[in-house]
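User: Run a structure prediction on this.
Assistant: Running it now.
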Amino acid sequence: MKGFAVINTAHEEDVKRKFPFAGKLWGIDRFIGPYKEEDMEFNNCIGTEIKIPYGFEKSKVKRAYKIGMKMYGYVVSKEYNINYNPFFHHSCLIRALDFLTVSLGCDLRLGEVVIADASTYEGRNSFRLLLPFARRIILVTDNKKEIMEEAEHAMINYGTSVAVLEDPVKASERADAVVIASDKPHHKYIVDMNRPMLFFRFFKKPEGRWWFDNVTINFKDYYNLSSIHAQGYVDINNKRPFWISAEKDGFRIQNIRKENIIIMNR
C-alpha cells in the first residue's frame, strides 16, 4: 500500500504526552529524537506524522526524512519545506474563503472580491483560483502592466469581469471580500476593511472580525489535520494539485482560523 509521512515540529505538550519523563528533566527534550505517531489510513494509502522535538533540528529533520522514506516512500513538510506545494495550500484557503463568504451571506458568485497586491505570488495564485467562480475580481497593484495581459487572458477564457486598479480606495468601494498579500503601506485602507478576508501578509494584522490565515482539516475519523496531509495524499495518488482533488476523496475543511483562534466551524 502506498504511503507518505508528514514531518512537523513537536509542541512541548506533545513531547510530554509521548515521553512523560521529559517534563521532569529540564532540557531532556533536546536529546529526544524524531518520533512517529500512529498510522492513518486515507482510502488507498497510509499516512503518518513524524514529530521533531526542540533542539538540534537540522540533524533530527535529516533523520526523520530517512525514516519517512524508508517506511512510507514519500515525505512532505510545510514547516521544513520538503516537497511542499504552496499552490495546493492556497487552493485550500480559497475554498475556505468561499465557505466563509457564503456563510456570511456574500456569495462570491454574485459579489466582488478585491486582491492586493495582485502582482505577488499569493495574489496571482488567488486570482487564478478565484476565476472559475467569482463574478467580479478587482486586482489592486502598482504593477498594472505586469498583470494586465494575464487579466485580459482570464476575461477571454473565463468570462469573469476583471479590473486592474492602482487606487485601493476606489478599488474597494463595492468589495464583498478581500485577499491581502501586500507589502505596500498604502494598501492599509484595504486591510482595515471589515470584510471576509484571506490574509497572507501585511505589516500589520487586520482589524476586522472575519479575517483568517489558516484552516484545520479532517478526513473521516481523523481530525485536526493540516492541508499538508491532503497534499501528501494527492501527491502519491498522482492527482491534480488542487484542494478539490482531496475534497472529492473525503477530506473536509473542519474550521477556519486566524492564527490559533477559530472564527468558523463547519
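The CA atoms of residues 35 and 51 lie 5 Å apart.
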